[in-house]
Amino acid sequence: MAALKPGEVDLGTTIMAVSFDGGVVVGADSRTSTGTYVANRVTDKLTKVDERIYCCRSGSAADTQAVADIVKYHLDLYSSQHGEMPTVKVASSLFQELCYHNKNNLMASIIVAGWDKQNGGSVYEVPLGGSLHKCEFSVAGSGSSYIFGYCDKVFRPNMSKEECIEFVKNAVGLAITRDGSSGGVIRIATITEDGVERQVVYGNQLPAQYTG
Questions:
Q1: How far apart, in whole angstroms, are the C-alpha atoms of residue 1 and residue 48?
Q2: Closest CA to 54 of 39, 64, 40
Q3: CB-based contacts of 179, cutoff 8 Å, min separation 6
């Protein structure tokens, strides 16, 4: 598996997505780190690849940005050729194809989530190595190891949109508290048939956590 190349920046991140009846909620922190140095504290790790499809990026910032740009190009081409919006499965399959066939050169772990008229809201994860998995919820990045237990305990199927937003906010907030490579603000996007609602949870609005 490829390590960071000279000059590359590691996102050092917490990303997650969860589906509900009618859409998905995606969220991420905003810290980009290079070792112990914070290179950017307000990064937007929620990347739009189609009107109602977003990806959450972790790993090498350069690799994940390049892969997202290539997928966006192919999805635009798909829409032009087929006269319809691509499905989330099509988008995630493109990510998987690129990540798998370049797994020795890329450091990229990506969550793909969105809404389409065929399947409604859906979440797919493409971890390091380029496999593809459909999930009800997914967490990734350096902060994810701190919150898997919380997510497994709190998540339940058929949560409402509001419950999913709180779930993402609390989970990413916990990761920011414990993971030195996660921080800044929490960016959240709610994707439904009606479009995309973006919101930002600033540092002074983060859920209160026990810090000893």
A1: 26
A2: 64
A3: 14, 142, 143, 146
The answer to whether 17 touches 113, Cβ cutoff 8 Å, is yes
Query: Quick one: CA dihedral 46, 60, 121, 86, positive or negative?
Result: positive
Question: Strand 23-28 to strand 32-34: parallel, antiparallel, or no bridges (unpaired)?
Answer: unpaired
pLDDT, tens digit, 9 for 90 and up, residues 111-137: 999 999 999 999 999 999 999 999 999
Q: What is the pLDDT of residues 35-60, one digit of tens each?
A: 778 888 999 999 999 999 999 999 98
Tell me the C-alpha distance between 78 and 202, whole Å.
37
Query: Given phi > 0 = left and psi -120 to 50 = alpha, else beta, which region is 129?
Result: left
Q: What are phi and psi of 177, to 5 degrees?
A: -65, -40
What is the spatial distance between Cα 185 and Cα 46, in angstroms, rounded to a whole number? 13
Mean pLDDT of the chain: 93
Contact call for residues 62 and 9 (beta carbons, < 8 A): yes
Q: How far is the C-alpha of 5 from the C-alpha of 196, rounded, in Å?
A: 34
Which residues are part of the catalytic machinery?
Answer: 13
